[in-house]
Each structure stands twice: as C-alpha cells, then as structure tokens.
C-alpha cells in the first residue's frame, strides 16, 4: 500500500498523465455528469494539486543541491614572474572528492615548477617532470558520523518524501471536496424535480377547479385555496432553484477545461437515479483494517518523517559537542631529473598529521542540542495527538455513515407510505368522500418525505465520501 501511495504522489504522475482531452471536456459539458468524470477533472486540473506537484519539484531540487556538497571539485592555479631577481613560476592542478564515511575527503594534485625561487618559496620547487601528490583527510571525533553536509543530504531527502506525501494529502482533500460538491449538486437538482411536480399538480388542479366553480359544483373558496397553494409551491421551487444554482457554482470550482477555466454544469446534465451507484454496503466498509488505515494515513507518515528529521538534527547537535580530531594522510613524489630545488625534492614523502580543536565551554552547542531535543519531543507528542484525532474521526465517520444508511432506508419507507396516502386521498376526493384540504396536505407531506429521502441519501453519500477519504480509497476518489 505504501509503495502504491509513493508511486501515486511522485511527479511522474503529473508528467506522464495525458492532458485533459476533448472527450473529457465533452463529457463535462454534455450528457449526464457522473462522479467519476468530476473526479477525473479535478485530479488533472485543480490548481492546488498542480501546486503540490511544483512544491515537490522544489523539494527535489533542494535534494539535488544538497547532493552537490559531494561533487568532485577541480582546482587549477598558476603564476609566473615576469621581472625580478628570481625567475620561478609554477602551475598546479588538483581534484578533491568529499566522501560520506568518516567525513573523509580525498585529493590529488599535480604540480610543475620552472626557474628559481627565493628561499621562502622553496616549497614550490619540483623535479623536471613535476610532483604528484595524493592524500586523505578523516574526521575521528566530531563529523565522524554526521556533519552539515551529510545532514543536509538526508534532511532534503526526507523533505522530498514529505513533499510526495503532501501531494497525496492535497489530492485526497480535493477529491473529497469535489465529491461533496457533486452530491450536493445532484441533491439540489432532485429537490427541484420534487417541487416542480408538486407545482404542476396544483396548476393542473387550478384548471379543473375553475371549470367546477363556473359550473357551480365547487365553492370558489376551493379555487382560492388552490391558488394559495400554487403561490406557496412556486416559492418553494424558487428557493430550490436558487440552491441548485449555488450548488452548480460550487461544483464548477472543480470542473475545468484543459486551460483551467471553470465549467458550470447545467440542469440537463443531472444524472438519473438509475445510473448512480447505490449507497455503499456498511459491512464492506467495516472490513477494511483499521491498523492499515492509520499506518498509511499521509498525515501520520508525514509526522514519522518529521520525527526522523528532528532526530537527525539532535544527532547533528550532539556532534557539535564533540572535540574535533582530524587525521591527514598524504603521499607525494617528484619525477624526472632533479630541478632547481636540488636533490632534497627527489624523494617519496609520506606524511601523517593530526589536528585537535575543542571549545572549552561549548555553551552554543549545548543550547542548540537542548532546543533540538525539545523539538523532537514536541513532534512525538503532536504525532500522538493527531493519531488519536484521526482514530476518533474515523469512528465518527462510521457512526454517521451507519446512521445515514439507516435513515435513508426509513426515508424511503416514508416516501412509499406517503405516496400511498396521497393516492388514497385523491381517490376519496374524486369519489366525493374526501376533503380538498386533506388532499393538499397529503401531497405536501409526500413531497416533504421525498425531500427528506433526498437529504438522507445526500447525508449517506457525504459520509461515504468522507470514509473514502479517511481510508484513502484511491479508486473511489478517482486517483487509481
């Protein structure tokens, strides 16, 4: 699972994936708009996801820069006397390669001199074919296990891993919000259908009542009451249309074309209930392992990496407390005929040197170490708090989802019963045994039941979307 998350969050995901093409844009503007199309659009075009990829690219650039501390360094130097008593000049070229173990550094140089040098520059003399020198420098105490260069390399590597997790976290949040916006838009559209049907019934009844009033079969007060119902139902419809327009604008935030322009969905794109997936099965959701969920949550993985970074910083500060003891080993040899420096340069020289330094009070190092240790303890406590919060949130999501599914079933039963009552009351009214007031009351009760069923379904779908985000169900969130 962790490998899959890493692969998902890698920049190659952004580079290799095909740009939003015409087929997707056509799907977003024509025909029924389905949740997978919304999720694909947001995954490919939403700005915060694209921003997270750029942050990861920046973190990888920092990693490359830190690796540069171990680059091979080439150095060349030359000088010559143009006038004066002495004619000596020399040229030197060398390379230095830092190594990670023991904070080591190896180097090699070639030097060639010509002419005579004053006694205080005698070290520049070489034989006719020059001098070759190789050496190495080792840290025996401070900088033996860690130093600023190795710390930076490891720190930027972990920071790049955190950036990959940040990509995943942003994707999960964006896809979760996109799903929520989509289901709110669908629910708002379904509510319009209910209120339109309710208004059409009242308007159709107006025609029949007008005919009956003119014939003297029905009192005029019944027509007045029905006109009052028409006005009330128009108000309900207007409010539903306003809510739908707001939901469409919110969904447009996640629907974009290849240029990133917002696409506002229309009512004609509302899907029918037949093409939408049913609410999820609770048992299948509960089957997911809780420990796996907590283990792979990007927030907790991020904390574990942050703790590792803090521990590395503590180790670096402890390193600063140690005295510095460096060992230098060097071997040099001149070649060719003896030069102006004389026979003293015609030898193989092996040199071993040791250098020791230590600050006597080390207050700066102790202060930095204490701060690093405090930051490490703080990070460990924050990880515990966030892990507990995620576990509680997961429990609450499951509780809400379970309740939402139960309420959705009850709401469907209520709709069925209310529809039966409407049919019965209309039949009694047509037979002259019913009451016009009761017919209106039954119709509006049935409409209210349908609205409650729509909202119960919405609550269930929002809870399911929250569960998919909490458990990182990449398929459900369109991140497969």
UniProtKB/TrEMBL annotation:
Pfam families: OEP. The keyword DNA-binding does not apply. It comes from the Bacteria. InterPro entries: MdtP/NodT-like (IPR010131), OMP_efflux (IPR003423). PANTHER family: BLR4935 PROTEIN, OUTER MEMBRANE CATION EFFLUX PROTEIN. Belongs to the outer membrane factor (OMF) (TC 1.B.17) family. This is TolC family protein.
């Amino acid at each position: 699972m962790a490998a899959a998350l890493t692969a998902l969050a890698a920049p190659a995901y952004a580079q290799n994936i095909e740009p939003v093409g015409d087929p997707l844009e056509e799907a977003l503007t024509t025909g029924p708009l389905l949740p997978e199309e919304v999720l694909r659009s947001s995954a490919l075009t939403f700005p915060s996801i694209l921003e997270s990829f750029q942050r990861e690219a920046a973190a990888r650039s920092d990693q490359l820069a830190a690796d540069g501390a171990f680059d091979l360094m080439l150095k060349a130097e030359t000088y010559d006397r143009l006038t004066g008593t002495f004619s000596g000049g020399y040229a030197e070229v060398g390379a230095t390669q830092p190594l990670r173990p023991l904070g080591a550094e190896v180097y090699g140089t070639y030097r060639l001199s010509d002419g005579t040098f004053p006694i205080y520059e005698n070290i520049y003399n070489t034989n006719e074919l020059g001098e070759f020198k190789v050496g190495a420098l080792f840290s025996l105490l401070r900088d033996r296990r860690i130093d600023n260069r190795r710390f930076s390399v490891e720190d930027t590597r972990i920071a790049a891993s955190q950036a990959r997790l940040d990509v995943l976290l942003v994707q999960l949040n964006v896809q979760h919000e996109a799903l929520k916006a989509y289901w709110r838009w669908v629910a708002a559209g379904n509510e319009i259908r209910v209120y339109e049907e309710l208004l059409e019934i009242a308007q159709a009844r107006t025609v029949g009542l007008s005919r009956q009033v003119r014939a003297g079969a029905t009192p005029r007060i019944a027509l007045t009451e029905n006109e009052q119902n028409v006005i009330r139902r128009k108000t309900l419809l207007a409010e539903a249309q306003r809510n739908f327009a707001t939901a469409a604008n919110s969904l447009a935030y996640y629907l974009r074309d290849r240029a990133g322009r917002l696409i506002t969905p229309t009512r004609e794109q509302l899907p029918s209930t037949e093409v939408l997936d049913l609410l999820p099965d609770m048992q299948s959701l509960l089957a997911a392992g809780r420990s796996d969920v907590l283990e792979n949550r990007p927030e907790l993985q991020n904390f574990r990496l942050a703790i590792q970074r803090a521990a590395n910083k503590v180790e670096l500060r402890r390193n600063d407390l140690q005295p510095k003891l460096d060992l230098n080993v060097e071997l040099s040899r001149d070649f060719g005929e003896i030069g102006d420096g004389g026979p003293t340069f015609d030898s193989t020289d092996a040199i071993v040197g040791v250098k020791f330094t230590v600050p006597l009070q080390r207050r700066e190092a102790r202060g930095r170490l204490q701060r690093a240790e405090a930051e490490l303890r703080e990070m460990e406590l924050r990880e515990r708090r966030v892990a507990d919060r995620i576990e509680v949130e997961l429990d609450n999501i499951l509780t809400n989802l379970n309740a939402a599914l139960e309420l959705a079933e009850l709401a469907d039963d209520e709709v069925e019963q209310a529809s039966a009552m409407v049919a019965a009351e209309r039949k009694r009214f047509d037979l002259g045994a019913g009451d016009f007031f009761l017919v209106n009351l039954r119709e509006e009760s049935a409409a209210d039941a349908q609205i409650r069923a729509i909202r119960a379904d919405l609550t269930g779908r929002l809870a399911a979307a929250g569960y998919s985000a909490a458990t990182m169900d990449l398929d459900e969130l369109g991140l497969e």
